[in-house]
Design goal:
two-stranded antiparallel sheet; Rho guanine nucleotide exchange factor (GEF) 40; Rho_GEF_signaling-related; seven-stranded mixed beta sheet; alpha+beta; 11 strands; 36% helix
Length: 240
């Protein structure tokens, strides 16, 4: 009996430690956490349920830890262009105040329009993570997923990145990035995302980006149909 009680206490402590680690990780990536917590925690819960059978520990090791490394690198390389400046929104480019820019889960409940796209970090092979861009397929049916090479992380949040992507497409140019906050979705011009706001200072550092030229290999693109809305679709992000 004493052993069972000890096991129960140990299990409870383990769950508390897991919950604490998850919240600390997400709060560091998506500040201010009091504004983004509802969105990112729900998205992580969705990933755990749909891909890991509700196993929180497996979701942590197979998804969140690799995603943390990918998101940190994406943020560091995006912010490196603005050395010496203070961001008004400390979570940029992963979030802008309460609006999440880089999603943790697919927005299955959102109807994509021509020109719409959103960014998402997904699981890769061997406990890795990758950044993908999702948009309406060029045939207008279902969605298309484009993998962003890690070598391009430094120029993702620039106008040149979108110009390069549109140069590879023959359909309606991409122009609106979908941001989420709770169940709300915001169609936002890409320039509003790529132009961060700074706290006024006396120092100005011009941004620099080395985007791919004409010889850069095209992004990996795969088409996949949008999944039907589930029974909890009314609590997922919906179209604004």
């Amino acid at each position: 009996m004493a052993r069972s009680a000890a096991d129960k206490v140990s299990g409870t402590e383990g769950l508390e430690s897991l919950d604490t680690y998850i919240q600390n990780t997400l709060s560091a990536l998506y500040p201010p956490f009091e504004a983004t917590a509802a969105t990112v925690l729900w998205q992580l819960f969705s990933v755990a349920e749909s891909l890991h059978g509700g196993d929180g520990l497996r979701c942590l090791t197979d998804f969140l830890i690799p995603a943390k490394r990918a998101l940190q690198r994406l943020q560091q390389e995006a912010c490196a262009r603005y050395t010496g400046l203070i961001f008004a929104h400390e979570g940029w480019p992963l979030c802008v105040r309460e609006k999440v820019v880089v999603q943790l889960a697919s927005l299955h409940g959102v109807r994509l329009r021509p020109g719409d796209f959103y960014l998402q970090v997904t699981s890769g092979r061997k406990r890795s993570a990758r950044l993908v861009l999702k948009c309406l397929s060029q045939l207008g049916r279902g969605s298309e997923e484009v993998t962003v090479p890690e070598a391009m992380y430094g120029c993702v949040f620039t106008g040149e990145f979108l110009e390069w992507l549109n140069g590879e497409r023959t359909s309606v140019p991409l122009r609106n990035c979908l941001l989420t906050s709770g169940s709300a979705v915001f169609r936002t011009p890409w320039s509003s995302v790529t132009d961060p706001i700074f706290v006024p200072t006396f120092r100005t550092v011009p941004p620099h980006c080395s985007c791919p030229g004409p010889g850069w290999p095209p992004p990996q693109s795969t088409s996949m149909a949008l999944a039907p809305a589930s029974a909890v679709a009314n609590t997922r992000p919906r179209e604004a």
